[in-house]
């Protein structure tokens, strides 16, 4: 699976949009981009994933560049409960394929 | 989303004893489950892939005789830490996917088990 690069930490004001970038310049055509987050002392929580089109769900939006070498996770109105480590993962999707976690971005949402 | 549970949520044991951790998929069946380990301030590291009805596949550096995995049914995988030592103290997390369709294969994680070995 391709490696990803994320900033180690970011701050965001409560109520503002949080934009978390991820570089995956070596991504292959059959690799999806996944985002998970981990709140302290809990298991990771699935957020969203996509292949090449932008995706949106009730939690977030995922913007993937046209060349697919980078993506941005957008939390439209960050709350204090969104404070967590956010992991961007690229992987070939097939039944049984595990996730490889990098360092992630520690997002701190401040009042 | 799909729900994965773990039991216990935390455990404290004496050095040399064995500890069993259960991972259950509550509302779906999973032929494959994954076990991860996370040390403080570090990322998750895959330990092994648990396959229903067959032997687990261990990552390099993970002792299969120390970390016994049994995937007895499509909803239950267990991880037994045998002869636990203080260096085995960690946060153990399992995951599973309810889908075998490639485009919708999403891993869902349990809440984790905090193991402390005294």
Question: What keyword list fits this structure?
Answer:
heterodimer; A: 111 residues; five-stranded mixed sheet; four-stranded antiparallel sheet; 47% strand; B: four-stranded antiparallel sheet
Write a structural description.
The complex is a heterodimer of chains A (111) and B (118). Chain A is mostly beta strands. Chain A is 0% helix and 47% strand. Chain A is built from no helices and 9 strands. In chain A, a hairpin with a 6-residue loop joins strand 3 and strand 4 (45-50). The relative contact order of chain A is 0.35. Chain B has strands at 4-7, 10-13, 19-25, 32-38, 45-51, 57-58, 67-73, 76-81, 90-96, 108-109, 113-117. Chain B is mainly beta and 118 residues long. Chain B contains no helices and 11 strands. In chain B, the strands form 2 sheets. In chain B, strands 2, 4, 5, 6, 9, 10 and 11 form a 7-stranded mixed sheet that branches. A 4-stranded antiparallel sheet of chain B has the order 1-3-8-7, with no helix packed on it. Classes of the chains: A mainly beta (111), B mainly beta (118). Chains A and B meet through strand 3 and strand 4 of A and strand 4, strand 5, strand 9 and strand 10 of B.
Please specify the SSE layout and strand pairing:
The complex is a heterodimer of chains A (111) and B (118).
Chain A: E1 9-13, E2 18-23, E3 31-38, E4 45-50, E5 55-56, E6 61-64, E7 70-75, E8 84-92, E9 105-110
Parallel strand pairs in A: 1-9
Antiparallel strand pairs in A: 2-7, 3-4, 3-8, 5-6, 6-7, 8-9
Chain B: E1 4-7, E2 10-13, E3 19-25, E4 32-38, E5 45-51, E6 57-58, E7 67-73, E8 76-81, E9 90-96, E10 108-109, E11 113-117
Parallel strand pairs in B: 2-11
Antiparallel strand pairs in B: 1-3, 3-8, 4-5, 4-9, 5-6, 7-8, 9-10, 9-11
